[in-house]
Amino acid sequence: MVFFKCFETFRGPGVWVGLLFLWLSGCAAGPDFQRSRPVELAPLDVITWRPYDPYAYRRMCLMPFSGPQGMENLGTILADIYRQQLVQSGLFSAPIVLKETARVPGPALDGRTDLGDCSLVLTGTIEKIHDGSGALPTVVELTVRIVEVEHGTVLWEVIQKGRSFPSPDVDLFWNVVSGGGAADYRETGRWMARQFAFFLKGGDNWAAGRDAPWMAGGIGYGCEDR
Fold this sequence. Notes:
Elements (H helix, E strand, L loop, with lengths): L1 H9 L2 H16 L2 H4 L5 E2 L3 E4 L10 E4 L9 H18 L3 E5 L22 E11 L7 E11 L4 E12 L5 E2 L4 E2 L7 H16 L14 E2 L10
Parallel strand pairs: 3-4, 3-5
Antiparallel strand pairs: 1-7, 1-10, 2-7, 5-6, 6-7, 8-9
Helix pairs in contact: 4-5
């Protein structure tokens, strides 16, 4: 009530200009500038490909992604990110992440033997990972493959690359608003998992190849979940 009385007393052109200035400053410094942390995806480098239909809805297990020593925890996190996306996509039956001690026969599966009723196994290798902070970018490079358990045959194998750069600062003349930081490796991994699921369904094959351009992660990979 006091505010409205004061406003009634001091209203005028100058006050309106001042309020407009404050409103613009608040909007410019608001979360819209901070939340934009785009992820860019390289086109898939496809090593092995098979039609999806013969393997649709089969039981799938995922192994923790392998990588340099000390990255065991990251390998489990990335495997679970891919599991979540495969669950959402409905491509395979009840995907689960195995413990590191599981073993199954076949050269492609490194002698692993206790997969239960899983007929397909997704494995991954962390080729490079850098979790950006501050002005540094995030870089994730993975080799992902799906293997048929019975014969140890590699059905799909791709190399994936994702990256995210910090958003630039915004100069408003009277103020500089800091841009948002790069997306972390988890967020980058989510877009890469979406890209892989689209590839399995045949939705990304047109964009595959070493010479195809990078594209924003939100294009065609479930931008509504962004």
